[in-house]
Amino acid sequence: MVESYAGIVTRNGVEFFVVETKHCMPFLLKRAYARSTNEAICFWALIPPPAGRYIAEQVRCGRFHQGFDLLNRHAVDFGTILPLSASKISDIHLIEIIDVPGGRRRQTAVFVLASFG
Fold it and tell me: Which helix (H) or strand (E) holds 112?
């Protein structure tokens, strides 16, 4: 089972991360619009609940990079909310990896912090 989360990622890591609800979206979008589009990406991610709670705890404690690393490790799927234009998103890449236990190939979402302008 997975839950849907929403958040903001910047060069500092994951700076905002909550369970996605209709009530969190206005706040998330307001925070994102307060920044330059080169500085922040709003995202949604599907994550197993235990990992999601741990990521949220890291973000609450100001450990943004640790939250970012956990997000990369545990996101089953993800997408952007802002910026809306996919052509402006050079900051997010899908990297193909091999699952060692099953030996199957799959796509996994990986944010790349170094590419923020």
Answer: none
Residue 61, CA atoms < 13 Å, CB-side half-sphere: 11
First vs last C-alpha separation in the chain: 36
Number of domains in the chain: 1
Q: What is the pLDDT of residues 59-116, one digit of tens each?
A: 999 999 999 989 988 998 888 876 554 444 444 443 333 344 444 444 444 444 434 4
The answer to whether 48 touches 1, Cβ cutoff 8 Å, is: yes
Q: 49-60 and 64-74 are packed helices; what angle lies between their axes, rounded to 10 degrees?
A: 170
Domain housing 58: 3-115
> pLDDT-derived band of residue 36, with 50, 70 and 90 as boundaries?
low
Judge contact between 48 and 5, C-beta under 8 A: no
Reported pTM: 0.69
